[in-house]
Amino acid sequence: ARAEGPARYRFHTDAMALAIRERVDMESLLRHAIERNQFALQYQPRVELASGAVLGVEALVRWRHPVLGLVPPARFIPLAEETGLIDDIDMWVLDEACTRASAWRAQGLPPLRVSVNLSARQFQQAGLAQRVQAALEKSGLPPGCLEIEITESTVMRDTAEAASVLRSLKALGVALSIDDFGTGYSSLSYLKRFPIDVLKIDRSFISDVTVDANDAAITRAIIALAHTLNLEAVAEGVETAEQVAFLRENGCDEIQGYYFSPPVWPEQIEELLDRGAGT
Ligand code: C2E
Ligand code: CA
Ligand code: CA
Ligand code: CA
Fold this sequence. Notes:
This is EAL domain-containing protein. It comes from Telluria antibiotica. Residues 23-277 form the EAL domain. It is built from eleven helices and nine strands. It is of the alpha/beta class. Strands 1-2-4-5-6-7-8-9 form an eight-stranded mixed β-barrel, surrounded by four helices. Helix 3 packs parallel to helix 4 and helix 4 (128-139) runs parallel beside helix 6. Bound molecules: ligand C2E and calcium ion (CA) (3 copies).
């Protein structure tokens, strides 16, 4: 066994060296992605169950690399967060989404609220609210047409700081939602203290909601909780008519998911808006 030591050790360092190399390569590619204009946004509609109307869209970032192809966020957001590159990416997304939503308004499309995902890091920087205000002013988008999505772990990281940032965002008039709701470990007390408007029920509860009694119970409980606190409940990852029926019966306000539409390029949103009544 002793003789295997050095060989295994060498194997280890080779594998590590490779992993580090890949990471460094990926990092330098990512570093240049903004200046090379390689990011783009897709938008996924959110549909009101009562009316079938598309009330909003979520902006989801895509990295279009000439060699790697279309890189999904799961493959670069974690690295972007570790390296801090997410700051520039999120601010690019914020500006781009506000500009697009403002252009849709100018084209006379039905009013849409655009939601943008911000990573936890943004809430630890001074001046987030000023940056958001600048994006709104630059684009001419009314504040009520912007929603900011944050996860439970973001607000729980430093609750006092988060509460103050959220209050200053709220003061601008933007809407705030808790993303992936139910997957955090958090106490629910923050919901009372923070100026939240929307709970987005995580896809992990929705996928089996019609077959798993626990998921059904949790989903009902989240909808009830949202309504008790005067918040809207939005179900994520809705894929089937059976899920839609369950959510409708249980009073969920809005749905988002492949059932209605996957995320699409901005040009396709206009077309989608015409079939909003189809749900
Ligand atoms: P998320 O915010 O929870 O976004 C929803 C994800 O679910 C999206 O994945 C969307 O394409 C996917 N999805 C929507 N409907 C369905 C469905 O019916 N079934 C299934 N299986 N999936 C569905 P996407 O676009 O790959 O984004 C993954 C995550 O990356 C997002 O999760 C979000 O956490 C993060 N992300 C995306 N854009 C940004 C961004 O601009 N900034 C930051 N910080 N994070 C982002
Ligand atoms: Ca989201
Ligand atoms: Ca989510
Ligand atoms: Ca997520």
